[in-house]
Amino acid sequence: MTALLTDLYQLTMLQAYLDEGMQQEATFELFVRKLPAQRNFLVAAGLEQALQFLETLAFTDDEIAWVERQGGFRPALLDHLRTLRFTGDVHAMPEGTVFFADEPILRVTAPLPLAQLVESRLLNLVHFQTLIASKAARVVLAAPAKLLIDFGMRRAHGAEAALFAARAAYLAGFDGTATAEAARRYGLPAFGTMAHSFVQAHASEADAFVAFARSRPQRPTLLVDTYDPLQGVQRVIDLAPRLAAEGIEIGGIRLDSGDMAAQARAGRAMLDAAGLRGVRIFASGNLDEWRVAELLAAGAPIDGFGIGTALDTSSDAPSLDAVYKLQVYAGVARRKRSAGKATWPGVKQVVRRFDAHGRMLADRVQLEGEPLDGEPLLQPVMRGGRRVGAAPTLADARRRCTEQLRALPEPLRGLDPVADAYPVEISAGLHALAAAVDAATR
Amino acid sequence: MTALLTDLYQLTMLQAYLDEGMQQEATFELFVRKLPAQRNFLVAAGLEQALQFLETLAFTDDEIAWVERQGGFRPALLDHLRTLRFTGDVHAMPEGTVFFADEPILRVTAPLPLAQLVESRLLNLVHFQTLIASKAARVVLAAPAKLLIDFGMRRAHGAEAALFAARAAYLAGFDGTATAEAARRYGLPAFGTMAHSFVQAHASEADAFVAFARSRPQRPTLLVDTYDPLQGVQRVIDLAPRLAAEGIEIGGIRLDSGDMAAQARAGRAMLDAAGLRGVRIFASGNLDEWRVAELLAAGAPIDGFGIGTALDTSSDAPSLDAVYKLQVYAGVARRKRSAGKATWPGVKQVVRRFDAHGRMLADRVQLEGEPLDGEPLLQPVMRGGRRVGAAPTLADARRRCTEQLRALPEPLRGLDPVADAYPVEISAGLHALAAAVDAATR
Questions:
Q1: Can you list the domains of chain A with their CATH numbers?
Q2: Which residues of B fall within a CB distance of 8 Å from A53?
Q3: Structural contact between residues A326 and A69, judged by C-beta atoms closer than 8 angstroms
Q4: DSSP assigned state of B340
Q5: Do A193 and B9 touch (CB under 8 A)?
Q6: pLDDT tens across B383-410, in order?
Q7: Strand order of the sheet with strand B252-255?
């Protein structure tokens, strides 16, 4: 993606910094100011794409020509853009890490103009995948051991959202996606059944089922609710012997509307009575973690769920209060004091302590350099514009997320909001520094 | 974007259709089943991108190789993909058209496998821009004659969402965007001020203001709330004579936090008393149409607004119930009857009637061919895979939207929900066809 995928003011500020010779080192931190009421924790994601962005940052001649045409930008800025590359250091929480408000998940240290310039796209990348991984983790906790598939592409907010949502959901524990390009790009398992239109286009539902099964004989899943779901199940049962004779074993049925708990129970009973115990029941259609939990609590014998719009848009909380703020410039800690938006100054680390069973006990946000009495969550990932060590794979991130969810304190695992259930302490050093900064900038 | 940006089941169904020789003509329609409670109307957008997608649809060898590696796809399908192009007809409402539930905004007629294949990306493209244009139109109605700028890139759902949101907002009447690449790509006016970090990085707020104004002397806008907004305004007033002596006229101040109505009133009075009547007041920070309306109702002397996250994510309604449904195959009308998701069959037109003052009176969804007694909203835009006539420009679409908003019945112009305030009739012909289809598919 182009380097111009940024706010115009980044270029304006860049020019002013160059004019003033303000090129000393700055540290910015990316964090979420406040969790949405519907989230008890967040899951860090999108780091891999953030690092790819930093590694490849460069302006093309066409882009620079556009900047020039805007007016008000001088040759010194345009020349600077021509050779600009990201040369800074980055610390970050590994993807899949659980985190809370005020905890930096990404920290950039670089010459001020450069560290500032990358703000918009870094936020755009890290905010969205973190948003989706955090939503997906709730579905994963609500439906242990169920097959979970991302179905959201059509109502995701554009192409990149569809692709990143599939990745972030997988990272958080989903089993795969319906989006072919996401499967290709990130090596995810791809899943798919059939649309209602497929059934409608055929002279009868039975014709559609047979045609589909013959075309795709590897345990096909048949969509039964186009006209009447239990009639659809009966048709599957009626067709099963004929398909079995052709060597085709029906893999599953999909429910997509109406009272799915009742349909699943009745459908399961019908299938079992017909000896089709191996046919799985898959549900989709306006599902989210609440509906999934309800269906499972009602004892619906559903084996898997396709989660679409609610997942890919994080519908109950479609954004996080994610920000990227200056913490230090030229060795001096900085702080914003705007009403309701004040920040903690200085270069920070987040330390997490665990109980004897490996469950999370408490976090502390502290200054880099204060004693570590737990796991430091921010790790060096880029130095001088180059990655430190090999990039973790998506499988690594998914594994980390699974472990993190296992370590969550019990109250945070539920869907209901538990305000401030998890202690995040601000260190004494940080309090002292904030007071000192305030005193100095009155 | 790759042709694999689609749901896997589109490829599975495509293979089944080829196996069966089901290549007769089908018509699909894209519509919204039900408006979100917070929307009194929607604005069609994204058509231009939809047509670009159809015009350029093609699978590369790499993509076909990936399909092959999935297993279950046969050589006949892979060969078909190699030469596949979109050869169908498209009717659509022009971008910027106001529409309601159950009204098709896009209609595709093509051989069944092809018309089906394009579903996922067509929805993905048209849904999102329609979502954002519909949200933006509310802001436009809430803030007549105010400068409105899209500020949402950082929390938009990825790159494409940021770009499309800027375009859709402009289409709906916004004045421009802060996102440089969106401005470049769509020819939008680009706007930008400064970040808090810019002020924080300087030894003092006054230093920051002077440096910024000198670097960008074309009527700069200065962000005054980093430490204390009215102190910030006072600093602007104190600096104005010095900057004026250098030929720099301060263009505006930006408020971004706290009680902005009070700050704007106090700030305006201070600026006016200092003879700085030309300095505009610009507000941003968690704004949406409700906050904007509140600020204006409170008499806040604010000249412009930057709307970010709420706009780019359509935060109060982050998705629409947009679907793409088979209406006719091989000359026979089709209908889905799933609980709560039943569709009207047949190829349709939407007719709108106006009163003597040009205000919208009522719409009717009817069968293509039923008598037209108003403006038919669906127009031919593509025939045999090629565009009909020249593409309307974004300026055309924006003009159309302005006219459409002007023609809205009064109750629909407000922010409060008015359930069913606008009559959308289903024609007698359509009722009769639905009954006939039901009778035939029992």
A1: 8-132+317-440 (3.20.140.10), 144-312 (3.20.20.70)
A2: none
A3: no
A4: T
A5: yes
A6: 999 999 888 999 999 999 999 999 999 9
A7: B176-177, B147-150, B304-307, B280-283, B252-255, B221-223
CA angle in degrees (0–180, nearest 5) for A85-A88-A94: 115
Cβ atoms within 10 Å, residue B347: 17
d(CA A414, CA A345): 33
| CA B182 from centre of chain | 14
The answer to whether residues A325 and A29 touch, using CB atoms and an 8 Å cutoff, is yes
Specify the DSSP class assigned to residue A179. B
Substitution target in A64, A314, A319 with the highest count of B β-carbons within 10 Å is: A319
Beta pairing partners, B111: B25
Beta strands A147-150 and A304-307, pairing class: parallel
Q: Which residues of A, range 325-364, sit inside 8 Å of B by Cβ? A: 325-326, 329, 334-341
Instruction: Please state, for a pLDDT cut of 70, what percent of chain B lies above it.
Output: 100
Measure the CA–CA gap between B223 and A371, rounded to whole angstroms: 38
Closest CA to B345 of B251, B280, B432, B236: B432
Interchain proximity A16–B66, CB inside 8 Å: no
SS3 A407: coil
| Spatial CA neighbour of A148 closest among A323, A306, A297, A277 | A306
Give the residue from chain B lying closest to A319, CA to CA. B155
Question: Which of B31, B197, B222, B224 to probe the A interface (max A CBs under 10 A)?
Answer: B197
Establish if B162 touches chain A: CB-CB under 8 angstroms: yes
Contact check, Cβ <8 Å, A192/B441? no
Residues in chain A closer than 8 A to B335 (CB atoms): 200
As for the ipTM of the complex, it is 0.97
**Within an 8 Å CB–CB cutoff, is residue A197 touching chain B?**
yes
**Tokens matching residue B410:** 């009064």
Assess contact for A157 and B156: CB atoms under 8 A.
yes
**Secondary structure class of A67 (helix, strand, coil):** helix
H or E segment at B291?
Answer: helix B289-297
Closest CA relative to residue B27, chosen from B138, B118, B111, B141: B111
The shares of helix, strand and coil residues in chain A, as percent rounded to the nearest 5, are: 40, 20, 40
* Partners of A208 in the β-ladder: none
| Cβ atoms within 10 Å, residue A16 | 24
Chain A: give the shortest CA distance to residue B257, in Å: 6
Site of tokens 């195959």: B329
Nearest to B183 by CA among A226, A88, A439, A11: A11
Please answer whether residues B202 and B192 qualify as being in contact, where contact means their C-beta atoms are separated by less than 8 angstroms: no
Residues 118-137 of A with CB under 8 A from B: 119-121, 123-125, 127-128, 131
CA–CA distance from A84 to each of A14, A112, A113, B63 (Å)?
11, 13, 10, 34
What does the pLDDT look like over A249-295, one tens digit per residue? 999 999 999 999 999 999 999 999 999 999 999 999 999 999 999 99
